[in-house]
């Protein structure tokens, strides 16, 4: 099954980081968040990716061009014709199509431009800035059970601010960033049938707007409710929170690291 990842946005709210690299290449624990996302899918056996490029797409191309060649241990014998000897390599068995989809193309247009690389079969889609501990096997089983064209993963976002618990006026606990108890939002991690692409008119379409709205109106959109961990790296604050979690060994999305 093909996994489509949108990695072309400019990430303006991460300007300190994205002035030199695209948002999906901002690092958590020394690895781009795009790498973390791909590892989530790879953990469940999905290793065939189509990555939609845009802003600073060459940065992502260079990363993957070097990733396979430079990962693991090397021996360099400068006097020989083939000076680099690779030893046991430490990288996932990924096939990665890196597709230019335009600097200004919106999310729906990027998905549409991936059509030649997705095949005429069910595929998964996510954004290049969010991680979760979603059970992809359960997500796919849910999608296949209902027979509709699209499944969206619904999540409850973490609260922006911590809150206090009281006993009268006494503070009994302070929770730094609890998950909100009400409201569901789009957590990405979609499962889609190829007919969904017919709902996208062109480059100037946000996938989150008309395509999803029309799928819902046609009764073709179902929600898989994920109550576990989910986080999107929209701002520097989000980046610092994820980095702090990684440094403390609190990595619920990194099931491959368990």
Low-confidence runs of at least 5 consecutive residues: none
Number of structurally distinct domains: 1
Structural class: alpha/beta
> What's the CATH H-level homologous superfamily?
Spore Coat Polysaccharide Biosynthesis Protein SpsA, Chain A
What would the principal axes of the Cα set say about the shape? globular
Order of helices and strands: EHEEHEHEEEHHEEHEEEEEHEEH
Task: Report the biggest beta sheet as strand number plus sense, adding barrel if it closes.
Answer: 8 strands, mixed
Q: Could you tell me the CATH topology label.
A: Spore Coat Polysaccharide Biosynthesis Protein SpsA, Chain A
Radius of gyration over all CA atoms, rounded? 20 Å
CATH class: Alpha Beta
Number of helices: 8
Annotation, overall tally of beta strands: 16
- Mean pLDDT over the residues: 90
Measured by DSSP, the beta-strand proportion falls in 25-35%
Q: How much helicity do the residues have? A: 25-40%
Report the span from N to C terminus. 25 Å
CATH architecture: Alpha-Beta Complex
